[in-house]
UniProtKB/TrEMBL annotation:
InterPro entries: KR_dom, NAD(P)-bd_dom_sf, Sc_DH/Rdtase_CS, SDR_fam. It holds the Pfam family adh_short_C2. One of its GO terms (molecular function) is oxidoreductase activity, acting on the CH-OH group of donors, NAD or NADP as acceptor. Keywords: Oxidoreductase. It comes from the Bacteria. It comes from Rhodococcus koreensis. The keyword RNA-binding does not apply. The keyword Nucleotide-binding does not apply. Residues 7-179 form the Ketoreductase domain. Belongs to the short-chain dehydrogenases/reductases (SDR) family. This is 3-oxoacyl-[acyl-carrier protein] reductase. GO terms for biological process: fatty acid biosynthetic process.
Length: 267
């Protein structure tokens, strides 16, 4: 039996990258997982991989920012697996510009995905959390970023959203402590995903929710960033997932209202 046997977890943005590794790790430890992605195919692939390893999972596709998604996400967990024990608000992306070039659409979109969506998911979960038994601890892990701590040029929208998520984390830790729910955050530094992979030029884009978003880090900037990390490299999604898993275990039952910075001691 895994450390999370009998638990049910929501993991937003878990069709790819860090979220996928979080979902796989929680499933390996015995949790039933509700997998989410914008696109049906990567969500189904994660579900299939969990099932092939003997785990339980179901997909709930769609944008976390769309109206009604939060309620559907929570209901999928309760209706399919009969409960809700772990919430990982992982979905998010960047849409960068310096402030004088940043549009209202860029600002609103990134705040909606990275801050408003987690708020809505947690709000939708509250009635179940309030009425659930308190014989063990439930866990919330909100995925923030070092951009929310230190800022990052070109990311006024993302930095503000991730800083706001830390405030939401600390507030909800106080509100939900009475229900024996631990609410914590993880702030990642450089993690090597499709959003941060080395781009040959500055015009590499991904279509996200109908928008072509420029992504990637050019080789010179990646080399400079790596020099600031004592290990000399960015982290892997598997390493990132391990930190989230830690905050989902019974060993973290007295850890609350904290943010675990996972950046390998970047200076």
């Amino acid at each position: 039996m895994g450390t999370l046997s009998g638990k049910t977890a929501l993991v937003s943005g878990s069709g790819r990258g860090i979220g996928r590794e979080i979902a796989l790790k929680l499933a390996r430890e015995g949790a039933a997982v509700v997998v989410n992605d914008l696109d049906p195919e990567p969500a189904a692939q994660t579900v299939d991989e969990i099932a092939a390893a003997g785990g339980r999972a179901v997909a709930c596709t769609g944008s976390v920012a769309e109206d009604g998604f939060a309620e559907r996400f929570v209901e999928t967990a309760v209706d399919t697996f009969g409960g809700l024990d772990i919430i990982v608000n992982n979905a998010g992306y960047t849409w960068d510009s310096v402030i004088q070039k940043m549009t209202d659409e860029q600002w609103d979109t990134i705040l909606d995905v990275n801050l408003k969506a987690p708020f809505r998911i947690l709000r939708a979960a509250q009635p179940f959390i309030k009425s659930a038994p308190t014989d063990y601890h439930r866990k919330v892990v909100n995925i923030s970023s070092v951009s929310g701590f230190y800022g990052n040029a070109g990311q006024a929208n993302y930095g503000a959203a991730k800083a706001g998520l830390l405030g939401l984390t600390k507030t909800l830790a106080k509100e939900w402590g009475r229900y024996r729910v631990n609410v914590n955050a993880v702030a990642f530094g450089l993690i090597l995903t499709r959003m941060t992979e080395i781009a040959a030029d500055t015009d590499t884009t991904l279509n996200i929710d109908g928008r072509d978003i420029r992504v990637g880090i050019n080789a010179d900037r990646m080399a400079m960033s790596s020099k600031m990390i004592p290990f000399g490299r960015g982290g892997t999604p598997t390493e990132a997932a391990g930190a989230v898993y830690l905050l989902c275990t019974p060993e973290s039952d007295y850890v609350n209202s904290q943010c675990l910075v996972v950046d390998a001691g970047r200076v």
